[in-house]
Specification:
The complex is a heterodimer of chains A (286) and B (298).
Chain A: H1 2-41, H2 47-51, E1 54-55, E2 60-61, H3 64-95, H4 100-114, H5 117-131, H6 138-162, H7 166-174, H8 179-208, H9 211-214, H10 236-245, H11 252-283
Chain B: H1 2-38, H2 40-44, H3 47-50, E1 55-56, E2 61-62, H4 65-96, H5 99-114, H6 117-136, H7 144-168, H8 172-180, H9 185-196, H10 198-214, H11 217-222, H12 243-250, H13 259-297
Classes of the chains: A mainly alpha (286), B mainly alpha (298).
Amino acid sequence: MERSLTSARIQQRIGFSLLGLVTFATVLPVLLIIGFIIVKGAPAISWEFLTAMPRNGMRDGGILPAIIGTFYLTLGTAIFSVPLGIAAAIYISEYAPDNFLTRLIRIAIINLAGIPSVVYGLFGLGLFVLFLRLGTSILAASLTLSIMTLPVIISTAEEALRSVPQAFRTVSISLGATRWQTIWRIVLPQAMPGIITGIILGLERAAGETAPILFTGAAFFLPRLPQSPFDATMALPYHIFVISTSVPGMPIQIQYGTVLVLLVFVLGMNLIATLIRQRARARRQW
Amino acid sequence: MENTSQRSEWVINLLIKVSGYSSILFVTLILIFLLREGLPALGVTPLSNLFGDRWYPIESYFGILPLLFGSLVVTLGALLIAIPFGIGTSVFISEIAPPWVNSVVKPLIEILAGLPSVVLGFLGIQVAAPLFREAFNLPTGLSAFTGAVLLALIATPTIVSITEDALNTVPPAYRQAALALGATKWQTIWGVTVPAARSGILTAIMLGIGRSIGETMAVMMVTGNAPVLPHGLNALVMPVRTMTATIASEMGEVANGSPHYQVLFFIGIVLFVISLGINIAASWVSLRSKTRAERVLS
């Protein structure tokens, strides 16, 4: 008895260490990737790199049009997906009856989340670029990215709305407020930090995506900045793809520099989302 | 006054309802436009060609089998890595690790989930491919194996977060009962907690598969772009081409409405159906386990 107990203990100790190693091996690449890109990319970063147009077949100069393009695409995605996503989440959390149609909505959201990004690209090409004749444009690409981002925003916003205690709603309604007044004045403000976190995480994903914009709005190279939503645009993720696969003799430093800029953009959003979530958790009184 | 506010509330409620149904609309629209552009491929390209083993669009060979195979090989390779590492990590952070370890590990996993796939693809070209080529003495590092490693990194956060959720929903009473019966923590984990969470873990693996099959950029950049049906076991270290990479790399160069264009959309339909199947199966698994848990606990 005594012996089997110790052997179980030894087994446990070995098992725990093994799982610790597995976890370490899983997160180590993340640290290496980020450290490596910072070390290799930082020397490329300069004021000119961030604010100048590319020159000499993109081998010189800056990456301004790609930075601006990614900013426009993220903004465009937000304009469409944020109001729609929040409204959809409100419907599911506050209005929807428990019936077949609601289950269908859930299934649809789950499936939207699972559709491969390149299939969104095909869809955007078929609907926005060709059928609606928007052409390869910021508008078409933003609409495509919006639909892709929607499930992320809906599910995080729904979770945030649901976490608001039911008593808040009951009290508000019993004081004579209508359902919408209750949602607008009571539920939404309480759920806001969670909703904003979800929005940022969704937009972060949109900002880093390449496949959905390949045929809907991304341009290989443009000599000037986009002038309207109907222009195509350069974008950081597509630019990284282009300079690392299709431009011979591309200086390696510029490649790492561009990757670093995208990483700062994306991880910066991630950091903001984390901070908002932590602050909201610390402040929550219920 | 009362009337206008009632009317505006009616409008708002209507807008919210419409937004609620928008997801159904979008899934339907995606399906319609994929079918509209892709189904004509069946009329123009004979089935024997479409499901043939040769992909060479310039000479009108549109066999998607090599691409299907390419997707399966990299996905399988990715899962062989991502499942043990993903489940191991989630067991560690949910059952074993002290809080301070979690406060380091969890954000790192989230960062991994947020890394754009083009960044991983870039590092795959610059770092992983040369490394693997030298380490395993291969003719090229741009192979299914490199793709599988990158895909494993992409699928792991999905597997970890869903598995962790599944482990967290196992009632503490299960663990307490096992510990009270004299089991060690280790025996409790593998004898009680993990089996109790198995449907959640199955869901995690399925969604990991979906994530891997649908991944485009990283795979396109490092798998060497060779749409050939390989022979034998060395397939894992040979260049391949996935379905997603084929769409991404060829759609830019085809004429709208040409047979090649239609076949690329047809591949899109195949991908759509695969992801639909995986997601419906995954939600069915988790739904079934939920109702079973309610039965057991009530």
